[in-house]
Amino acid sequence: MDVRQLRYFSVIAEEKQITKAAKKLHMAQPPLSQQLKLLEEELGVKLIDRNGRSLELTQAGEVLYQKAKDLLIYFEETKKEVKEIGNGLKGNLAIGSVKTSFSLIPERISYFRKYYPRVSFTIKEGDTFTLAEELKKRTIELAIVRLPFNLDLFSHLPLHSDCFVAVIPDQWHYEHGISMEEAAQLPLIMLSTMKGAGLYGLVMNEFKQKGLIPEVVCRTPDAAMVLSLVRAGVGAALLPQSALTALPLTGVKAVSISDVDIYTETVIIWLKDRYLSKNARHFLHTFTEEDVMLPRSL
Predict the structure, then answer these.
(1) Are 127 and 193 contacting, i.e. CB atoms less than 8 angstroms apart?
(2) What are the domain boundaries of the chain?
(3) What pLDDT was estimated at residue 197?
(4) How far apart are CA 273 and CA 267, in angstroms?
(5) Which of 19, 130, 191, 236 stands 20 to 30 A from 153 (CA)?
């Protein structure tokens, strides 16, 4: 059994048809079927069951597939690490960011590319849980996310923490701020994740601690949608203050919350025990004051 056979088997497992797998691998079907047969003979177990036109993994096949995915990732990362020794920075760096923290990225990329012009970027947007899944799948190397979030699988670098403010339509009059009791009486649009508690859980727990039951009229994971709904007069929103630097504020305004006691921390995360490319390691340095001198606006 070698790396080539494991790659073949993984594609068969994912495509569930020999024909589709052969097409994806740019090879003929008979040699691929022969490789699967040789692998099963070597291991002495059946790896695939035919279910009509589709192929299904046996229990042994499922175990091999999960192990093969990890081995293939490790193999590719080992090749990358060896190739990068002695080489300058080049290629593509894939990163992710929650929309409410995206303002941390543009100036850093501009700064980074002045020194490493041969590095390009791919940027994915999503909520914290979506980006964590992208990290696990190795489609990105770094992600800027907001806590709370379970960091057991991730290394992280704290960036900053900030308080919540109320975002209201321009025509509403709360020039001197708003209390949590007043906020609970307003129709609220809540920023929520597709999975887990996240910022929504923080805000709702604060209401609960104060014995208040808010009127939530809408929940969405998209911060831009939250502001559009506020702009239209649907309701108010409670958002981290720093989130507003990345979003258009036309037609809305932010006011302080007099008695709020919740903060959210922004961190940059990456998978523990995963090889980080040179590009990723150098980009991480742009978030540490001791390593680089960044523009004052950061």
Answers:
(1) yes
(2) 3-84, 91-159+265-285, 161-264
(3) 65
(4) 18
(5) 191
